[in-house]
Amino acid sequence: MFRNVLPCLVVLCLLLTPAALAQEAENPTIAILRFGRQPLSAITRMGILDMLQAYQFINTDERALLNAEEDLQGERINLIWGDAGLDLPTANIMVEQALDQGADILMPFTTPVAQIAVNLTLDMEDPPLVIFSIVSAPYTAGIADAPCLKPSHVAGTQAAVPYDQIVPLLHRQDPDIQLIGTLVNQAEPNSVYGNEQIRQHSEALGITVETATVTGLPDVSIAAETLMDKGVEALLLAAGSLDLSGSSAIMEVALERGIPVFGPTIGFANRGVHVGAGFTDFYREGVVVGRMLTAHLEGSMDVAALSINALPSLGVALNLDTAAAADISLSDELLAMADYVIENGESTQDRTPPSLPEMSLEERRAADLEFLAGLACTEEMIAEQQAALDAAE
Questions:
Q1: What is the pTM of this model?
Q2: Is residue 18 domain-shared with residue 167, that is, in the same domain?
Q3: CA distances in angstroms from 117 to 91, 127, 374, listed in the order given
Q4: DSSP letter (8 states) at residue 168
Q5: 278, containing H or E segment
Q6: Same-domain check for residues 149 and 287
Q7: At 308, which CATH number?
């Protein structure tokens, strides 16, 4: 879909003069658009705001306003917020409203919102820049064909869910496990991608996967019951919106049946899932897209020439309270791996807010530009990625 979009972009075109890329408007408008209010997306938001403040695009008073998620008409930038309440139709409306408000830069969180943002801007003559984060399936979603084969107005970072490391945790809980269940929403690319990854890595370990299809929240508890009626020994959720928004319904069924549930990010444990295991580096997601954003605002780099970044990470959190309620004993191996546990209503999670390392603005700018230069799409990379796609066809 997006092949040959960037064949002329090489490393040398990254470092441009500020005059060449300076914003026409004195106050560019940035729209931060999230699928729903989640603690982990708030950490990504913090990373973005930390970068904007470090580069002096917002001052202390403006930061206080943005911490409260109020829209900003600032001295150097304007910033508007959007929240879809975990609802796809609302997400469409949210992105359309941001465009109607004249957003120059869209910063969508999660695969569904990024997919909508790209689709709505793809045919525009002068589209706003789209810089996405917390997106687990950019290629399945059609946001891009490959890291360097993408629309020229699109950049971002992939929150790579390490299914290859998550699936083996099933054996750490039960070495004899043979049958697991998972849910899939065919309308949601990150759900489809996650389901494919779960099946691929499970079969490699000799584990059979039973899949139940869901299309909306009312389907979730029925699907979970159906899977458990088929004798699954555990549920492994994908990184889909229905898995997240329906997690409480899933856990009600799991409580009755005494079946362990694994979620694909560490934060699932905070929602009651027995084992939250997966992507965890949400602050760095915000810092990376913050680097892209500030480089664009300063006119120091053309983000169109950047490949999509990927941030694999693995964290493990255990909810011992919900496990005990379902009469499930989590293994010593999982306990030894846990970054934190929830027990007796208390969490051992480190609540120290993440922050940027201390350095001067000049030092930070040099380090950030060096990082971004490492994402440069060279002609060789573009050719290799194009050849790989052609071979796959």
A1: 0.85
A2: no
A3: 9, 10, 26
A4: T
A5: strand 275-279
A6: yes
A7: 3.40.50.2300
